[in-house]
Amino acid sequence: MKFFIDTANLDQIKEAQDLGVLDGVTTNPSLMAKEGITGKENILKHYVDICDIVDGDVSAEVIATDFENMVKEGEELAALSDQIVVKLPMIKDGVKACKYFTDKGIKTNVTLVFSAGQALLAAKAGATYVSPFLGRLDDISTDGLNLIEEIRHIYDNYGFETQILSASVRHTMHVINCAKIGSDVMTGPLSSITGLLKHPLTDIGLEKFLADYKKGNE
Ligand code: E4P
């Protein structure tokens, strides 16, 4: 399973990249705003800065909601780097734009997906990635993991190549359960990746190994 980090924070992206397990980055307009990145020029430059840190795909979301402007914006984003994946909302014009970019060989990520039907449409339009929002479904007492399982099942039935990018991952158990289901990618905060490191028996064991080494080498 690929690990993407879901942030526009350059320090966190660097930290995940330095760990050696990062496969890409996802951003959205809220995450950009959280970092204080505003204005077209600054936003475009920030995407380039992210691409300079990571080796993999970087999802950059369009703001437009109509086909023509989605295409215009997406083409501008895609021109920044081969790493850019044009992120499009799961609405009618988003599906049309997805097909347009697919035909042009530009990578896409269809976002804000909350049902198996939406995921099926994204795959039909040739999306590179589909982003079901696991955590936001859990937030409203709906089983987000069940949606990931349904999409996996449907995609496997027909051999769709669209990669399931489990989004809105909030913690380590989401990551582990996504891996069990066979999600292709997960995107979450840095803590959902670094949290996987932790086990008290590892810390206790290491402390004992080092203490025993010290005793025998004093
Ligand atoms: C997906 O690409 C979104 O950026 C993201 O995963 C949403 O996560 P949230 O529900 O924690 O905001």
From TrEMBL:
- Record-level Gene Ontology MF annotations: aldehyde-lyase activity; transaldolase activity
Give the enzyme class.
transferase
Q: Which Gene3D superfamilies match?
A: Aldolase class I (3.20.20.70)
Task: Give yes or no: UniProt keyword Cytoplasm.
Answer: yes
The answer to whether the entry has keyword Metal-binding is no
* HAMAP family given in the database record: Transaldolase_3b (MF_00494)
What is the name of this protein? Probable transaldolase
Report the source organism.
Pustulibacterium marinum
